[in-house]
């Protein structure tokens, strides 16, 4: 009989598991998304090259922004777009230039706000922002794929063969994107430079031709101004309406959060340090300013030519310009060959914008959730996360019928919430720095974005609904993960001061006995009575040494942290090890294991039972790091040390 078993002896299920979890701890570091790990300084890229990576998301919105603006504002599209440009240059740009200064390692505004809040309220606030960030990135994937499909389906040469299959084609594009990440996604900046350069060059041609047709046909402008006058009366009314409708154009603000998040990829000065990356910050500011100026020019010119040269009915769902206004002009004025090249370029950059968003999400969630203990172990591996995100993108595509217009509100909500949070963060930062002028200016900008976000949510609630679903999913999964991982050791390092080291060294030649004590008044009677009780309950000889161990909980919402151990002698006779950590049982377990490894002896620790409901005590442990300490300490030790013969001894009396 022929032996068909694999050479390594593993079953197909084991091989699949190994493939999915390959590079569990560090595989995400290779992904060059917005929240990737910082590369070595000498391997950084010039700021304008990194701008092209940002541009995959930012500049690709030209594929659908003019059409969405025309649907939202009608004849007022150029005026509303001008308001959007003013908000971009006078609002979002100053905010993110300040974010680049305050958060130079790519953490973005979320990290700025995280530093302002502590305990569980800070963690839950970050989880909420992560929910909106997930909305932004996932809708970037689905919206970009849907618009790429629109360019395919509406191409005159493919319309007959592909018409009516938009959802299927979009799902195939999303699946292809997921397949690329399952295989591996290498450095994308070089490809991004080519795609962005070609795409912007083609758009320059389309805009130039469109402006030439507008200039050579004066009736186009006169007909437009006449229609505006009939519809809105006077310029003040037009401006007022434009201010009201411009939140619907907020898609044109995408890319700023990504712009600061890719900062670690920017080449800095030779004398840059991680504490003061001056060159990187300067490069990031150039990136943000250049991208904003380029995009503003395109936003104004494209909204003008599409509004003046395309009939309004063609923007409606099912119309030839819906979701592809510039491609419509490319085909109409420059012929099928140029139009097909333009379609191909647009499809490529839209698809790659989805790749940048996927990479960003894969690097964003691991940046926060593992530190909170709010991610399962498999979430640190890329491939399982790719499957989860791809399935989520499938669901969103199906729910919205791969329709660009339907997803615009959700995308805008994610973008606006992040920008608003950034504006609030820099306002607080300026106030803390006692910069009164900047504080007032940023506060006004934050007010504008709060208004814009509120209007967008009120008129298009789909975005906040999707964001709420992402927030609920992230919070529920995070809390379940935190619950499941509560009994992990959760100590990254143990640091003893000289006195604590001497205590451990002095007890190494005899039985090491610790008393777990919850300090109250720390007076003489407290320690004397505790020693008498522990000796009586556990029949400990009077000549055996006892060392007290006390834990001070700083922030119980932190999951992993260093353990600092300080030794002191109280009342001239009682030796006390004072520990600082986020959890009492985990700190005690880590100390016992450290003493075992240092001395080669198994230490003993003595507890009293805690009065109260076991369920209430567990909630105290989960939320506040305290509760019924003895059994939890023993469980942490059991998980950390499977060998019972090497496990420190826990006694409860």
SSE layout and pairings?
Layout: H1 12-20, H2 47-58, H3 65-73, H4 77-102, H5 108-116, H6 119-153, H7 159-162, H8 166-183, H9 189-216, H10 218-232, H11 235-245, H12 256-261, H13 278-309, H14 325-372, H15 382-399, H16 404-432, H17 436-459, H18 462-484, E1 491-496, H19 498-506, E2 513-516, H20 524-538, E3 547-553, E4 561-570, E5 574-581, H21 584-599, E6 604-607, H22 614-624, H23 629-640, E7 649-652
Parallel strand pairs: 1-4, 2-3, 2-6, 3-5, 6-7
Antiparallel strand pairs: 4-5
Descriptive overview:
The chain has 653 residues and is α/β, with parallel strands linked by helices. The chain is 64% helix and 7% strand. The chain has 23 helices and seven strands. It has helices at residues 12-20, 47-58, 65-73, 77-102, 108-116, 119-153, 159-162, 166-183, 189-216, 218-232, 235-245, 256-261, 278-309, 325-372, 382-399, 404-432, 436-459, 462-484, 498-506, 524-538, 584-599, 614-624, 629-640, and strands spanning 491-496, 513-516, 547-553, 561-570, 574-581, 604-607, 649-652. It has a seven-stranded mixed β-sheet, with helices on both faces. Mean pLDDT is 80; it is low at 1-5 and 25-42.
